[in-house]
Low affinity Fe/Cu permease
Amino acid sequence: MKFAAISQSLSRWAGSARTFYAAVALICLWSLSGPYFHYNDTWQLIINTSTTIITFLMVFLIQNTQNRDNDILHIKIDELLRVSKDAQNAVLSLDGLDRKELEKLRQEYRSIGKTGTVSLNSSCGIAADDAEQVRTDLNQA
């Protein structure tokens, strides 16, 4: 079985209500056992060690799941852009841009959302010839 499949299964299990309730029950049992063990160092060490190990492993599990979900989302968006005749295909390869370039492009798209217009220039991948069509599409939306 692949790590991705195991990771997805564990993520579903770890994120379920039943697992949360089981964790709360275990913590309640641990806290109720405090007087029996006289709240000694070993009693405290059990919960500290357990939570540290679980947290350490969950970081990798969550990161793997998020990476996979992120990849799936990007592929779906790329496909939607690919099949839309009015979409700017230049945005299909944004992963090659640095942080400054991405922020500049993000500002361009924010201006579209706020004003319904965009400053059309070659830096954001929209050709000047398409200006009227883009404005028409934005006004119809």
In short: Residues 97-141 form one domain. The two ends are 46 Å apart (CA to CA).
